[in-house]
Amino acid sequence: MFERDENGDPVRAVGIHQDVTDHKERKQALEDTSRKLQVILDTAPTYILMKDTDSRFLFINSAARELYGVDADESVVGMSDYDILPDHIAEQTHADDQRALEQRETVEVETVIPVDGTERTHLTRKTPILDEDGEPYALCVVATDITEQKRRERELARLTDEYEAVFENTNDAIALVDIEDPADDPTFRYVRTNEAYERQSGFETESLTGQTPIEAASPDTGRRIADHYERCVSAGETITFEERDLHPTGVWETQVTPIFADGEIDRLVAISRDISDRIEYREQLERQNDRLEEFASIVSHDLRNPLSVLEGSLALARDTGNDEQFDRCFRAIDRMKELIEDLLTLAREGDTVSETEPLDLESTALSCWHAVETSDATLEVTAESTIYADESRVRQLLENLINNAVTHGGPAVTVEVGDLTDSGFYVADDGGGIPAEQHETVFESGYTTTDGGTGFGLAIVKEIAAAHDWSVSVTESEAGGARFEFSGVRQEF
């Protein structure tokens, strides 16, 4: 400012000076902050946009430019989603913008945007920016590409559906088992079981959940199961075991597999299957193999003698012309026929009985008695029960025992058929009996104490009993003779 004289000429100047150093520093700091913020926004992997209340762009970061296909030097200020996106998508994003502004709170939505011919799903958060009066003047939009996450969610949902379908529809019993303190003293608790487990074990999932094997089953069975679970944890791999008391009936094969989480065993899945039929079939095959070995031994040994007699007698008859040699031939042939017939019976009676019928034990015994040559022997029947069995095989069993008693006990022997105190029946006689040291071997094929016997009679009895799933044993009768007892027999009184 100039001060002038009366002629208007300046005589001095008056100036006011102000220190603006702080102002320039604050301006510089603001510009630095703005640049840093711009760098942060442009390098962020998420899509960040600012819009006005009419959904027109005020700012978009580099990631959003790339998403929308906008060049770095192209201005987007004043543009809207309608200028960049398909109309149907722009309409939805505009509606979401206005909803967030109207509600004055963050709105979270999923938006599908086409990128290079491929649809990408984004999780978008739209937050209104409010002035001092609480009125919105701008909208901040932050979007994250969740396409892979959605794919994994769909895959997880598919796997979950498949898991549920297998878990609930398989015939195998499945139990999911949790582990407490796996590294020290693990405790196993049932988490979940499937319908097959409930159906076969009689336990419901609700009653099993949270229980240990010892709490759910008997102490002995539960301890064995827990030991198997511990063995699986120690091995860190699938193990298999068989257990007869795991479920109410049958033999069960259980496969226990560890489930890992973060490299550590987190749970176990136990899959059990009733293998009773397989075990029975395996045992039947073993019995058949044993019989085949017996047959091979008998054919190679017992038939060799009558064949030798036949061969020698034919040679003598040819050389001497003596007809008496033919009698020896016929006796040898009869002996071979008898052996072959008993062998066929032994093979046939070993097959498992599939169908049974009720048989009155008294009348069956009387009928068998009359079918056998008994001479002066006597039959006493005290049995009052009805047994369930294959009639033809039971007749074979009783006839063999009656014939055995008459053969070894003498023509006046007394044979008794009666019921056991528990389930079963017995056939006893008052003959000479069987020595105690021979009680185990008496049922072996080829066992005989007479020259003319084939040794198959009691072996056939044992096979018939096994085919019915009965147990047979021999002991001494009250009269000092032999007593054959059959237990495990289904019977009624």
From TrEMBL:
SUPFAM superfamilies in alphabetical order: ATPase domain of HSP90 chaperone/DNA topoisomerase II/histidine kinase, Homodimeric domain of signal transducing histidine kinase, PYP-like sensor domain (PAS domain)
Presence of keyword Membrane: no
Keyword rRNA-binding tagged: no
UniProt name for this protein: histidine kinase
Top-level class of the enzyme under EC nomenclature: transferase
Ranges of residues in domain PAC: 1-32, 105-158
GO MF annotations in UniProt: phosphorelay sensor kinase activity
Keywords noted in UniProt: Kinase, Phosphoprotein, Transferase, Two-component regulatory system
Domain of life: Archaea
Domain Histidine kinase stretches: 298-487
InterPro entries, per the entry: HATPase_C_sf (IPR036890), HATPase_dom (IPR003594), His_kinase_dom (IPR005467), HisK_dim/P_dom (IPR003661), HisK_dim/P_sf (IPR036097), PAC (IPR001610), PAS (IPR000014), PAS-assoc_C (IPR000700)
EC number of the protein: 2.7.13.3
Organism listed in the record: Haloarcula amylolytica JCM 13557
Domain PAS: 33-116, 159-236
